[in-house]
Structure formats: structure tokens, C-alpha cells
Amino acid sequence: MADTPTTPDLARRLAAIVGPAAVIADDAARAPHEIDWRGQIRGRAALVVKPGSTDEVARVVALLAAEGIGIVPQAGNTSLCGAAIPDGSGTQVVVNVSRLNRVRALDLDNDTLTVEAGCILAEVQRAADAADRFFPLSLGAEGTAEIGGLIGTNAGGTQVLRYGNMRDQVLGLEAVLPDGTLWEGLRGLRKDNTGYDLKHLFIGAEGTLGIVTAAVLKLHSKPRAIATAWVALPGPAAGIALLRRLRRECGERLTGFELIPRISLDLVFRHLAGHADPLPAPSPWYALVECFDGTPGPALEERLQESLAGAIEAGEATDAALAASEAQRQSLWALREGTSEAQKREGPSVKHDVSVPVSRIAELLTDGSAALERDFPGSRVVAFGHAGDGNIHWNLFPPPGADFRAFSKLANARAYGIVHDLGGSISAEHGIGTLKRDLLPLYRGAVEIGMQRAVKRALDPRGLMNPGKVIPP
Q1: What does DSSP say about strands 391-397 and 353-355: parallel, antiparallel, or unpaired?
Q2: Is the predicted pLDDT of residue 2 greater than 50, yes or no?
Q3: How far apart are CA 264 and CA 435, in angstroms?
Q4: Could you give the CA distance from residue 119 to residue 293 in angstroms, rounded to a whole number?
Q5: CB atoms within 10 A of CB 299
Q6: Which DSSP helix (H) or strand (E) runs through 267?
Q7: CA 396, 402, 408 angle in degrees (round to 5)?
Q8: Which residues are 233's β-sheet partners?
Q9: 141 or 175, which is more confident
Q10: CA distance 238 to 381
């Protein structure tokens, strides 16, 4: 290996590949690429490089690999666990794929859309809609989150209940491996038994095995009828009973089921303007329910109304409001999507993106939350999320005056222990990054972690691709 070049020399050589404007060396210009969305994880990069094509990504990676320089893949940088942030050494190079933002191909007969990794999720949704198709991945950061990052974290969102997470939306990938080799796997096949399905190695790997540059995405038929309701609940157990009822009575039409506590709603009202309470009286818990159908007409809304009436009669719900227009539907979803921003404005909280079996959600939200608030007097649990697939954002505000770093360490140990005892996972959709890396050995066996290390060594024997992320040392 050659001697590591100085930063100006490296910048010059990278600029010869991507152009001078796409190499960022200035401290102020680098700063947005060195901090996570929550402002809690910070690093320092030697440079930020923004290739404009797959070929440029491959040439950049090959150059950096030849020099033994750590590479940090980055897309929209909406990650919450530090996966897209360099360490503090100032020696790693961030390779940001946001300029790779083209829609390459649309195949209507095959129901696929081939897009580059820098495409913003909302733009992919619009491209599908313009073709009279539907791309179902939906989450609060869809206006800034990019496809490469969503693949890297195996993102979920609010419609996993029906459509699955990002892994379920990807048919093929194109990726640059840690030595700069290009893997061309952009196949739009639903059946392909030609050995290991390699694309799944990269989905959820958080950039530790290579840089995804493009993907073939599944498209779905557009819903022709949508029914949305805001439902008041006496508690989480009633919410799970309502979920069970809706699954039985609405079947596969049930697309989203979000649990939201009153404390979360109050934070939205406190910090975000333009919102109104959907129901006349407050309730301790709510469910935001949505159903899709491929057949237009009132039948879907009537089915949902009948189910909710039965739930109220059975004591599973106390009140409900159905959206009578698209504007009302959007206002209901704005209450749910505003929860993360409202909590951010309230102050720092310890984020626990966890999953448990759906049958244990009520136990997590009642007994588990009570245990956290008992063990940390003055703290506040604000839990919400995708109850239909068991993914709860189980967040904890520290007591006034607490040292946040010390509190986080204690709160994580207690919270993840509760989740583990319930048969759950410490990461449902946000990934591992650096935030949860060192916790993995507590909740995953040595054989499993050893298999992950073996895969990492096979594709990245020198450990240059997103070093220090996901895999415990």
C-alpha cells in the first residue's frame, strides 16, 4: 500500500474523478455531513465526495481502497443511529450518493421502477403515481430520505403491516464493493434460484459491505379506495384487541395501524402549529387505522365503520372519527408524522426503536413503561408506533437536570433488558450504526455475530467500508 496521501493531494485526485465542485474540504461545508439528524452523533471527515455516476463511485472507492482510507457511505443522512456519520479522527472520507438521483427505467408490465440510490423517497412515490402505480414505503422523513439509505437500514414505516419493509420492495441491486468492483445485480425477477440471493446481504447492512448505487423496486396497484380513522382507546390492550378485530373483519385491506398515546398528541399540539384534536374528548390512547382497497366505492369505508362500531360496543374503543376527505386524512396522518419532530423540540430523549411480538405490545407499553418510570423517577415515557408489525418507538425523556449521556446508558440497559425478556429486538427499523453496536453481544449469540463477522471479512477483508459500524469489535 502506498503512503497515505495528504488531504490536499487526496482532494486533488478525487476531484480528477468527480470534478472540483463535488469534493468538499471546507469545515463549514462538511459540517452537515458530519452530524446525525438528532444532532447527537458527531464526527469529522477528511473530505466529503459526491460522485455523479456509478462509474465515479467505483473509481472513488478504488482510489480510497488503494490508499487504505476508511469509506463512509451516505445518502440522505436521516439515519438515527450514526451509520452515516464518520468517526472523529478526521481521516475517513464520506462518499455521498445524493447526486445519483435518476430514474433509470420503468417497466409497467413487470411492475418495476429502477432508480439510483440518491433518489428521494417522495420522488419515487411520485414517479410511481405518475405511472398509475403505487410505491408503498412511507415514513416521516420521506421528503429527504434517499433510496440508498433506506436500503442500507432496511427501512420500515407505516405500511409494513400490508406491504412489508424495504427488503420486500427490492428485486435487484447495483453496488460498488469495498475494493471498487462493481456488482451488477439489477434484475427485476421475482423468481431467480441461481444460488445465494446476494442482494439481501446489502439490505440492512448499513453500508458496511459496499455502496448501493441503484435498485430495482417493486411497484403495486394503486389503491382505489382509502378509509382512514382516528380511534380513541382505553389502553394498549384494547388497541391490540381492535387490531385483532380489524385483521379478522377487514383482512388484507388493513394497511396501517399506529398506536399513539395522549402525551404524544399533546406534544404535537404544544410544539407544532396547525393541528386540531380529531375527537371532542381526550383519551389515554389512540389508534390511527387505515385500509386500502383496489375497488373504488363506499364499500371499504362501510366495512371499517361496521368494524369500529363493533369495537366500541365491545369496549375495545370509546370513539372514532373517519376522514371524510383527503384533506382530513392528511391532517390525521400529520398528527402521527409530527410526533418525532415534536419530541425533538421538547428536548433530548433516549430513543428505543424496538420490536416485540404483537401479542406482547400491551405488556411492553403498560408494565414495561411503568418499570422505566419507576426506576427513573421524573422520567417520561413517550411510546408510539407501528403496532401492526410489533415495532414501537419506546422513547424516554430524562428527569429534569439529569446528565443525558449517563442517563442514556442506564436507560438503554434497562429498556433493552425488558424488550429482550419479551422476546423482542433492540432495533426494528433504525438499524445499529454506532449507537447500538456494542450492545449486540448482549442480545445476539456468539454464533450469529460470528457469521456476521465472516460475511464482513469475506467482502471487506481490510475493514475499510464504514468501519466501526454495526459489527461489534
Answers
A1: antiparallel
A2: no
A3: 24
A4: 28
A5: 13
A6: helix 262-271
A7: 45
A8: 285
A9: 175
A10: 19
